[in-house]
Amino acid sequence: MFDMKKLLSYALATLMLVACTNSEKNLQKNAEKLCKFIPDPECLQKSEAYMTEDFYSVVEEMVSLPDFEPVVHQWEFYFVTADGTPVANSACEVLSVDLKDDTHAVATIRVSPQDADYEAEEHSLVMQKQDGKWLIADFDDTKQFCMNYIDNYNKELATRTAIGDYLTKEIGVNYLQGELCIPVVIIVAAEEIDSLSARVWGDYWVDWYNLSGDTLFTVSGGDHPGCFSITKQGEDLKVTAFEQTVDGSGNLESAKRIFGNHYDVYHNIQSNQDVREAFRREAIREYVKRNNLQVRCYKDFGWDAVQLFAE
After folding, report:
1. Structure pTM?
2. Rounded to whole angstroms, how far apart are CA atoms 57 and 258?
3. How far apart are CA 283 and CA 67, in angstroms?
4. How confident is the model at residue 66 (pLDDT cuts 50, 70, 90)?
5. Which domain holds residue 109?
6. 160 shares its domain with 303
7. Nearest-5° Cα angle at 176, 221 to 200
């Protein structure tokens, strides 16, 4: 006679094995599908439906920052973009999927570029199940990378704003004034003293302009290298001290004393006219865009006008 208990046990074990196998296959298929939607800054919105809301929002915020450069922050370089087009002729293969719990899994992916100059690499695709659908929750710790990048950007922006306000209100008033004062903040180095205060060394410029037509004409300006002491007061950063280099015969000595180990970097910037003008041009561009001005160029007396934007 058949042992019904054993038969039921075998049947149940077989069903569980089949269910487990099907579950693994489904996870594999979902991971393969999500590989086609690894977020690409050039077509990020096409990935939105395949990413968790918090992961999408942090990536979107980062790529929306004014100074974001995909070529520099191209953590998706070898992968498949959101429109399904392989980047750098790479093949993406899901090696395994580790189910952490009912709603979380991690897929290990191997990317094999057809270009012989590049070797195959393994990467981690974090998956999260929401409303019955598997989504990209992270990719090679990109979420934390973006969060750190945004935090650093906001800190630097706040620092630049505090220094720029000081240059305009405290130093700019000593110059022959025009219609607009545009400071140029060239940060050489920064050092946090504690969670609320920092020192910022740099080459700082104050320039006044008059606007005529689409051109800013220089009225006056000057250079004020030195070190700012910055303190967080409430939600804002405030300048609490500014030590700048002296003019005349004591300039070199004071610059070496103030900049210390950062002097060589400062000197390389301050002594290079092309570098200084590049920073100046970018500062004016940002000011024009921020204030919605119809300005195309700026002009120093006796020099040709400099175009701010590509024609």
Report:
1. 0.74
2. 42
3. 12
4. confident
5. 4-140
6. yes
7. 40
